């Protein structure tokens, strides 16, 4: 099992899809799985039920995916806010933190109206605040960090695969525990 964590807009879904394709594994985006369960968008749910209730459902979905799914999971940007999620991700998956600066994410998301936490007057300041809180949690959760910067998606996928191969040489069994 492989999992990607990082800020909203760091490329988790895009990288995850290509990584899964290259490794011939299934791919699941936890936010998409949550929306399927809710029957509405995360933004709509946030507006009605609030963030705390959303995080409850996110924890349930991540637990289910880690136990029932096999392949690559792209997690929501805030999935690491709960210690239970961090511990379960780290123990049941090989976790990669796609690290992007708030400025990079802002450049990518400045016109995206579907990110509930960024629907504020100053989204860049909000991203900086989110980053300040979550960056240490992403590090705590991840086995490896991939700097996103401006490399092509294929290069990031190649970096992750190379790291998986290096891990295999260091411990010949880690992928057998999590991959076919």
Structural commentary:
The protein is α/β, with parallel strands linked by helices. It has one domain: P-loop containing nucleotide triphosphate hydrolases (Rossmann fold, 3-Layer(aba) Sandwich), CATH 3.40.50.300. Helices cover 59% and strands 12% of the residues. A five-stranded parallel sheet has the order 2-3-1-4-5, with helices on both faces. 33% of the residues are buried.
Topology summary:
Blueprint: E1 2-5, H1 12-23, E2 26-29, H2 30-38, H3 42-49, H4 51-68, E3 71-74, H5 83-92, E4 94-99, H6 102-109, H7 123-141, E5 144-147, H8 153-170, H9 174-178
Parallel strand pairs: 1-3, 1-4, 2-3, 4-5
Helix pairs in contact: 1-8, 2-4, 3-4, 4-5, 5-7, 6-7
